[in-house]
Amino acid sequence: MTSLPRDVRLFGMFSELERADLARFMSEKRYACGETVFARGEHGNTMLVVTQGELCAVVPGKDGVDHPVARLTEGAVLGEMFCIDPAPRPVKVTASAPTSTLELRREDLTRLRQEAPHAAAALVNAVLHEVLRRLRSVDDRVERELAASQDPAAIIGPEPEGEEVLHRLDSAVPGLWKNAFAFARSRGSA
Q: Does this model's pTM top 0.85?
């Protein structure tokens, strides 16, 4: 029987029964060094938990070269957003060493919902809490960068609305929103 690593934050609030139920629906998958795990732009249909080895998330740069944005080692979870939104993956993920993972596919999630609804609910709840944690982190980062760069009132000026606020902020702190949202998406949808 497959078991989940104990130190995975995403599963921290699961009961022992929910952990065991989730593990029953996951299968081991191995990747060779250099093998592509997720292609950028493909729709999410799996969640992986790294049990051994290392994965690397990369994004294409303006120079046409892939740039690493995250290293994912034992205990890392990626692709969990597919549980609530099978959006296109914002990053390419490759194995930077021989890597073993536990995989939950869309059909496994469907079976989990039917056969172990408490574990499925715990998983979706955990993913939603993780999304909220990431949003708060991005919000905190934006606030820190604004405070460090200059007085926000000077950036925004007289009462702009909607996208004009974002445009003015991005003009004052180049790449702030793009980098903040790229970081948040790479950690949640890989």
A: no
